[in-house]
Amino acid sequence: MHIKIIAVGKLKEKYLKQGIEEYMKRLKGYAKVDLTEVADEHAPEHLSEAEMAEVKRKEGERILHHLPQDTYVITLEINGKMLSSEKLAATIDELATYGKSKIAFVIGGSLGLSEAVQKRSNMALSFSKMTFPHQLMRLILLEQVYRAFKINRGEPYHK
């Protein structure tokens, strides 16, 4: 299985980088995992609706550039479907069973995802109704993907 995580923005926080490196290392025995960062657009604090749409459009173009047609796309969206860890594991297992061995998880920037990226998505996933920093979501996502593989293999970890 090949899992790609596409995230808007460059990760700067050392503690997050260390956590991400740890889960990337743990995942090596289960899947090929790539983390792709796309540049974020400079967005001042107060933007009009049109300016926000333009920022998301530009970031969205960068995201779409990294999504091959044969990839199953799961976007992380606050209004997406909420799953338990076990259900996420079952979803990943089902995708692999039915020949969807390339999965991309997409984490948008601080303004969210463009309409074009949402249309390209096969599944919108929400981790919570709460808002998390998009940098932290990379670590949370990797931990949950790792947990999913442990669950699917019946290995201890997920209790």
TrEMBL record:
Enzyme Commission number(s) of this protein: 2.1.1.177
The keyword Cytoplasm appears for this protein: yes
Protein localization: Cytoplasm
UniProt keyword Cell inner membrane, yes or no: no
UniProt catalytic activity: pseudouridine(1915) in 23S rRNA + S-adenosyl-L-methionine = N(3)-methylpseudouridine(1915) in 23S rRNA + S-adenosyl-L-homocysteine + H(+)
GO cellular component: cytoplasm
One GO molecular-function entry: rRNA (pseudouridine-N3-)-methyltransferase activity
Keywords of the record: Cytoplasm, Methyltransferase, rRNA processing, S-adenosyl-L-methionine, Transferase
CDD domains, sorted: RlmH-like
Principal localisation: cytoplasm
Binding site for S-adenosyl-L-methionine: 76, 108, 127-132
Pfam name, any one: SPOUT_MTase
NCBIfam families assigned: PRK00103.1-3, tRNA_RlmH_YbeA
Family: Belongs to the RNA methyltransferase RlmH family.
The protein's role, per its UniProt record: Specifically methylates the pseudouridine at position 1915 (m3Psi1915) in 23S rRNA.
Quaternary organization: Homodimer.
Name of this protein: Ribosomal RNA large subunit methyltransferase H
Natural source organism: Compostibacillus humi
